[in-house]
């Protein structure tokens, strides 16, 4: 019923939005032909840059071990890297089983907040109360702190899920909507017990702003949630369109417009 150019443009828009929400496994996209097309819809890439990225990764063996390598090994330029890297995920695959991947390379966080500025690392170290007593290589220490604090937050999400499910089923029986549970909106702040919840991110953001680096509170809050739910898929499970919704999409009419 729709003109083909309009339909294709809408498909492109939906794919761009989906990729921006859930990212793309860059190694998977370079390894499997059926996934390669998703690179085209990564913000900051497009067909030409996506093809160039795949060719560059193929030349070095077909896998990349970190986001930082994308720039360090000249697999993409600095501008393209800055614009697209937060949507490119480095996930654990067989070819990288011998390497210890950076824990934040599979999150929505831009490397600016955990390499250039190191704010995510500072939050993790403060949450674990390591302070100045920790010794060893700073990068190794930071990565261990990130893994530990993320595991702590993952455990807390599981605890809250189990508690919420048990409370619901105690009142209403086995009708808990697992797919519909959203810890961001369904769990009040006072119920969180993970270590990162104890930090005063507002004060940290004020310190950053006073040092002349701008307003970064939204990024700090994002760090907290990526510790808890790294690259969480915000989309709800697909449901068949009900008759009234299908009618509205096809005709543009609603109950109100037909009254």
From TrEMBL:
<protein>
    <recommendedName>
        <fullName>Transcription elongation factor Spt6 helix-hairpin-helix motif domain-containing protein</fullName>
    </recommendedName>
</protein>
<dbReference type="GO" id="GO:0034728">
    <property type="term" value="P:nucleosome organization"/>
</dbReference>
<feature type="domain" description="Transcription elongation factor Spt6 helix-hairpin-helix motif">
    <location>
        <begin position="2"/>
        <end position="90"/>
    </location>
</feature>
<dbReference type="InterPro" id="IPR042066">
    <property type="entry name" value="Spt6_death-like"/>
</dbReference>
<dbReference type="InterPro" id="IPR010994">
    <property type="entry name" value="RuvA_2-like"/>
</dbReference>
<dbReference type="GO" id="GO:0042393">
    <property type="term" value="F:histone binding"/>
</dbReference>
<dbReference type="GO" id="GO:0140673">
    <property type="term" value="P:transcription elongation-coupled chromatin remodeling"/>
</dbReference>
<dbReference type="Pfam" id="PF14635">
    <property type="entry name" value="HHH_7"/>
</dbReference>
<dbReference type="InterPro" id="IPR032706">
    <property type="entry name" value="Spt6_HHH"/>
</dbReference>
<dbReference type="InterPro" id="IPR017072">
    <property type="entry name" value="TF_Spt6"/>
</dbReference>
<dbReference type="GO" id="GO:0008023">
    <property type="term" value="C:transcription elongation factor complex"/>
</dbReference>
<dbReference type="GO" id="GO:0031491">
    <property type="term" value="F:nucleosome binding"/>
</dbReference>
